[in-house]
Amino acid sequence: MMQDLAMTQPPMKFNESMLKDLHLTTFELQDFLHRLIDFQMKNHSQPDECRGYCQGDIYKWVGAYNGIHGYVSLLICIFGTIANILNIMVLTRKEMAKAPINNILKWLAVADMFVMLEYIPYTTYQYIYMKPGEKDLSYSWAVYILVHMHFTQILHTISIGLTVTLAVWRYVAIRHPNGSCANFLLAHSREAILFPFIISPILCLPTYFVFKVRETLEVDTKEHEAMYHVYFDTDSMLFRFNFWIHSVIIKLLPCFILTVISLVLMHVLCEASRRRLKLKDYDNPTKYAIQLNLNEHKSRRPPRCDRRNDRTTLLLVAVLILFLVTEFPQGLLGLLSGVLEKCFFAHCYPPFGELMDLLALINAAVGFVLYGLMSKQFRTTFRSLFFKRHFGSSEMTRLTRVTTTCV
């Protein structure tokens, strides 16, 4: 309606005498016009080219999940926080800390733990304490949202960097175990872990300038209450550049690297399995005829170091595949938002926000389950730590010796 009036009436010109009669200063007039433009843009209908974007049953399903996201994410965060604390306690044990891969997993658990610890108050207030459709437009909550965005993005980027480091480390250990690259990584294992903590805040640098807390005025109420929200200019070049950095460099590029490394690791597992079957086929059946069945069975089993190697490789493949399932959809949505810009970002990206958070939280929480299912050393250390003080000391010594030579 205000737009129609502006189109039918001639523009009003103000001079200094009129401003004096209205008891207004130039600054107050400019502030009023600025707020008026904000109000018109907020209530202005979407252009025709954005109509029909992102409609269908999938958005109904996503909307149905968004109604219960607070409770689901809270349960995952509580479980994941406890699980990662247990991971840290187990992986910092002397017999576990000798392997560089376990140190990477430990710091990955630390980053994931802090992500979920910070998400607990956010989801409790945003999705459980506040009623559906209710919004907190106070200055303190706007500042908290801004800090929440930056904090979680930096820590999640650190987790991505540590996952890539883990994959590269395992690739070098499998393909070039005695090469110069492997020796270099062993000599600089601490620097390799520290690097994601340094580079992640730098990669997230454009985000610090894109989002800011902005004040608007509620003109529908008599009190003219000031409202605050996190603002970003979708028309700015920096906003589009940030989307490209976030989607391509932080999300899709690590996904590509991890896909290649995961395929290589799975190929190594298949080659090892075929090699063992071939060795079994060429066994001389008369060679062990005079031996007991138990000894014959033991002679045909692959070396313990090889079995340990395969379990470790299989564990890391599972971690990498879970990471791909979590991060690739986020990178794809971010890339489409950077390419298609306004319409896609306004209509398609926001409904998937809670679902993307859910996938990231699941990825951060299930490490304990994966380690327990696929690592015998992890299970043995966990039992000795929490159930019996001196459980399996000889077993732990043997496992430690295997770890330091095979991983």
Automatic annotation (TrEMBL):
InterPro entries linked to this entry: 7TM_GPCR_serpentine_rcpt_Srw, GPCR_Dmsr-1, GPCR_Rhodpsn, GPCR_Rhodpsn_7TM
PROSITE patterns: G_PROTEIN_RECEP_F1_2
Gene3D superfamilies with a match to the protein in the record: Rhodopsin 7-helix transmembrane proteins (1.20.1070.10)
CDD domains in alphabetical order: 7tmA_FMRFamide_R-like
PANTHER family linked: AT19640P (PTHR46273:SF4), MYOSUPPRESSIN RECEPTOR 1, ISOFORM B-RELATED (PTHR46273)
Pfam families assigned: 7TM_GPCR_Srw
GO molecular function terms noted in the UniProt entry: G protein-coupled peptide receptor activity
Keyword terms of this UniProt record: Membrane, Receptor, Transmembrane, Transmembrane helix
Transmembrane as UniProt keyword: yes
Similarity field: Belongs to the G-protein coupled receptor 1 family.
Keyword 4Fe-4S: no
Membrane spanning residue stretches: 68-92, 104-122, 142-172, 193-211, 243-270, 314-335, 355-374
Protein name: G-protein coupled receptor dmsr-1 isoform X2
Subcellular location: Membrane
Domain G-protein coupled receptors family 1 profile: from-to ranges: 83-371
Gene Ontology CC: one annotated term: plasma membrane
SUPFAM superfamilies in UniProt: Family A G protein-coupled receptor-like (SSF81321)
First-listed, main subcellular location of the protein, grouped into a coarse class: membrane
